[in-house]
Amino acid sequence: MIKQKQEKGRTVMPFRFESLEIWHMARGYSRTVYCATAKFPRHEDYGLRSQMNRAVNSIGLNIAEGSAKGSSKAFDYHLEVAIGSTFEVAAASLLAADNAYISSEEHKELYAEGQKLARSINAFRNTLLQ
Length: 130
Known about the structure:
The protein is built from 4 helices and 2 strands. It is mostly helical. It has one domain: de novo design (two linked rop proteins) (Up-down Bundle). A hairpin with a 2-residue loop joins strand 1 (5-7) and strand 2 (10-12). The relative contact order is 0.14.
């Protein structure tokens, strides 16, 4: 159920995406990835660090954008893109571990959290299209 918010004496309806568990999971994953990429060397500012941060942001942003669409088919498209971005972050975390920017343990944690998020988005897609 979507809860109303009070803001300066007015009732404000939250956006639809704010009620979606997958969006909150994506938001948490974004924080985790940003913490990991903060340790990357300076020469990766516009390389792998930027790519990982943009990919992880794409997950939640596509969930939010898709939730505003007028059809389940259109929403599904954005969820598919979000899953692809989750895979991109997982692959990039492996490259980061290969280059010793993160430990293999950090990579495993990012990978596992990404798998859980991708499965959750996919499960949501399945209920959306029923």
